[in-house]
């Protein structure tokens, strides 16, 4: 569609759209859009009705998404807890291996997978159902290929950690754990495209059931491998990799058998190997955006490993990061809901619904994060005992709890706005913002406070929080000034562009 000839306004945003095969279809009706446009109601009546509608939509998506992310996080957390009871060295090794190496792969794969989230969400809203399966397969091909150089990083993880200045004992133990995580790389490569494929269709509950069942199996297998068979760190990481592959296999079986995916999954296609360069460019922009976010706080742990008394610092920081990560799963659930709602509504040409959905999801996520931050402060003296019995680590965690609480509040807003960015396709812009706020402001200030002013972990974390705060303010400002009618037009142009490429590939 030629954007110069398209007039997006309240009177014509519902005009028919085209399937990728050229047939004309009516856009998906929106109860929310109708409520917001109902002139027979007063302003407050419209807002009241729209809020109730959007809350139902939001929690129908966010609740199971939160459960999925929390259960998946508990799979990794349970491994850390088991290893923590082996000793402080093992806990530090798992923390460094997970936070310093594993999260690198996780961030890259999740980031690249968010390209699928943008395209699948908008294609589903535009009723171009046949493209969702193609996008899933293209993403899986690209992410699997990306897994090969990541595997090399895992293999040389000890040398990398030593080069970064970590102690030889911790680096050696962490490397043993990381070796067992190599199969997990390729589970990520398939899981994230499948996850985004299902989320775009608002199919999330099955993933929650799968994750819950996998958690039970994982805990049992981890206990047997670590304590009964004595396989230690390597056994713990191998079981973790196996658990992720169980999740992948179960979700794919669901796609094959479910009636809900009949229109969007039509089988394997050679189109998955066509147009990979364009898809890679979009995936790369998505990866840069999300990787810079995910890696940011993990860098705290790597930098903290250079401080004096590194073992205690690493233990306390890793516990705080694990708790923050667990709480972060709630915001990530709202992130997924925001991305799906915005992507679907943009694809369906419902600008008012997009704007209203962003307001509601951000407000709810922020309110919950404030409550959780208060709980962190109340429980600050006992938080660490779920991971280790040491009183020294417990005291260190208690001292860091105010920083943890403030981070929890910021994480109630920032991930949701990132979800909005993914739904709109703003990844490249947000990537530039992240570079400036995180890596040109946050990390340098954190290092200055931590080492030059001898504030240690508190100084490092303070700088990081400053960078996140500036980034959040920028995203709030940009979102508030967004013209959602123009975003609808951009979404239509994007779907037309990718649809035209598919038609061209089919003719070749």
From TrEMBL:
Domain of life where this protein originates: Eukaryota
CDD domains: MATE_eukaryotic (cd13132)
Residues annotated as transmembrane: 58-79, 91-111, 132-157, 169-191, 203-226, 232-257, 278-304, 316-337, 358-383, 403-422, 429-453, 459-480
InterPro entries: MATE_euk, MATE_fam
Keywords: Coiled coil, Membrane, Transmembrane, Transmembrane helix, Transport
Compartments it resides in: Membrane
GO cellular component terms given for this protein: membrane
Region (Disordered): 1-31
Protein's UniProt name: Protein DETOXIFICATION
Organism (species): Citrus clementina (Clementine)
Biological classification of the source: Eukaryota, Viridiplantae, Streptophyta, Embryophyta, Tracheophyta
